[in-house]
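Standup notes
- DV: blocked on the single-chain target, sequence here:
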Amino acid sequence: MTTVDFVLKRVPACRVATLSWNGAWSESAIHSHFLQVQRWAEGQGLRTGRWIFREWWQKRRWQVSVEVKGKVRGDGKIRVQELPSTWVASVTFDPDQVSPRVVYHGLSDWTRWRKKEKDLRSVSYVREVYAGDPWKNRKAWSKTEVQFLVRK
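- DV (later): unblocked, structure below
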């Protein structure tokens, strides 16, 4: 049996290389954009870490980010930015065991309840965090983390 639970935690700041675009949701587009950023980082001689997917679905805006270790500047469409340390409502789960739809709805209801109880002031955007390439790394896929950025 798989257990999935919600946690409120502070995540550390990290430097990421990002690529953003507008358009319809497409898993193949998301994957190809991640690979572009990963190849760029490797070409710069950087060590990489987590893969982060951010979405602003109302605006049909998407952003892929790969954590990079070391000093570097963006180039062309790829930007480098610092994601600040922040509070998140988080769930880690295996999408092959638990439907992402259940996780998203559950986390949405949980944060709504926490806002009603005045434990949270606001919830901003959503991001998915992976320990590496979830298309090639089974372990990264099985530990998918969904984070809602929150203000306490």
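- Follow-up: The mean pLDDT is 93.
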